[in-house]
Amino acid sequence: MDTLSGSNTAPGITYDDLRQWLIQADRLGEVRVVKGASWEKDIGMAAEAILREDDSPCVVFEDIPGVPKGFRVLMNVFAGRRRNMTLGFADHLTKTELSEAYYDTYLREPKTIPHKIVADGPVLENVLTGDAIDVTKFPAPVWHPDDGGRYIGTGTYSVTMDPEEKWYNCGAYRAMVHDKKSVGCLMVPGKHGHIHREKYFAKGEPLPIVMVLGGDPLAFFFGGFEAPYGVCELDIIGGLRGHAVECVRGKVTGLPFPAHAEIVLEGYVHPDTRKVEGPFGEWTGYYAGGATACHVLDIKAIYHRNDPIILGCPPMGGGPDEMARYRSVLRSAMLKRNLQDAGVPDVQQVWCHETGATRMLHGISIKQRYPGHATQVGHLAATVRSSAYAGKLVIVVDDDIDVSSLDQLIWAMVTRMDPASSVDIIHNVWSSPADPRIPPEQRAAGNITNARMVIDATRPFHWRDKFPPVNFPGPEAVREAKEKFGWLMDKR
């Protein structure tokens, strides 16, 4: 691949769909092909073997037993050098530089370009309706040993429309295979798709929905983020690329979906139809949600390309994984933008840590300007759009700390905060069913909220000039030392 070079803010996203992305990743030498792996066990085992490693390859599973020849599963999009390619930047950027480049390029002056409807596209190469509908023919894996079923929807997003305001949302909601014509559609209260669903249910109507199971990685990423209310994620993707996403309309619901998607399920979610879904190995590292009766997608049509690809992104939990890698880069930039939009000055660096799945631990550095500055930043960071869901801990530090380094962040916390005066607790904040710490009685009552801890780990503003100086050099001196004596670390 001809990688980009030069300025961090000279992006160029060079693909429009999953297959074009795969060609670019292969040119980087980061694609591996595995033939003959089973969906029952092998693919999930491979996920456990590679997804936690930052430089692990993208894997395409082919010749999967028991499914039509040519049907494939792809996993681990965001790792190695291809993570930079995915966002359109040069491959020499570190993860923090990539996040800053994304912020500078796409979020300082964000724009959207509306998707456009076209008459045809590769996703319409195969249109299945009536008795031909059979979602079980696709190689949906069992990702974790104790999962309650096959999860065809992990790298997925679903398109819904607000019945009153007429705007489209693309939300990432997991999908377990129930039978030939139904899959789970787990929507968490507060998410935009759930709001759309409840509006339809209040009218006594089913929710029309299309579920994209293999598509542009960017669309999947943004389906899992907190886009502004009323804004379609496909239009955000158009703004990133500089041209409109081409979409076709579903023949049943009329909802739009990308013309170059791999597999799309179309149908309705009915108010009174539920099936037992789960358990599933959650992003928190637990089977916290259990097995519960959840709404399902009643499939009325399946659309797929020839030799279709399922995009898999199973959460591993217990530490960094692919989901944490892409979310840390993007969510950190989004949180920084949210704080800027709130009018907070001098936020220097933001990092939503991979440990904590980018939701539960946020580090923020500031250049202190006034009394209460750190408290203001911490409380906002615990509750603004990009970080409100399922958070736990916000640590605010001075600008001499690299908040992407857990060592530096925790060092600043334990040396600059006072447990009696530096900690605030915020109660009754929006959380997730995946949170293992929600008490059973609270969960049973549907009270999916938690508390947030905000830690001011900055030098106390009123006597910051008297705070003991650190005993290590600044960044420039560290750079000079590495340039002059870094050779001592070379392995012989």
Question: What keyword list fits this structure?
Answer:
single chain; 492 residues; alpha+beta; Pnp Oxidase, Chain A; UbiD C-terminal domain-like; 2 domains; 9-stranded antiparallel β-sheet; 5-stranded mixed β-sheet; 12 helices; 21 strands; disordered N terminus
In short:
Helices cover about 25% and strands about 25% of the residues. It contains 12 helices and 21 strands. It has helices spanning about 20-25, 40-50, 80-85, 95-105, 190-200, 215-225, 235-240, 320-340, 375-385, 405-415, 440-445, 475-485, and strands at about 30-35, 60, 70-75, 115, 125-130, 150-155, 155-160, 170, 175-180, 180-185, 205-215, 245-250, 255-260, 265-275, 290-305, 310, 345-350, 360-365, 395-400, 425-430, 450-455.
Q: In CATH, what is the class of the largest domain?
A: Mainly Beta
Q: Kindly identify the CATH topology of the largest domain.
A: Pnp Oxidase, Chain A
Residues in helices, as a percent range: 25-40%
How many discrete domains?
A: 2
Average residue-wise pLDDT: 94
Number of helices: 12
Strand content: 15-25%
Q: How many strand segments? A: 21
Envelope shape: globular
Distance between the termini: 32 Å
Tell me the structural class. alpha+beta
> Runs with pLDDT <50, length 5+?
1-10
Radius of gyration: 23 Å
CATH superfamily of the largest domain: Electron Transport, Fmn-binding Protein, Chain A
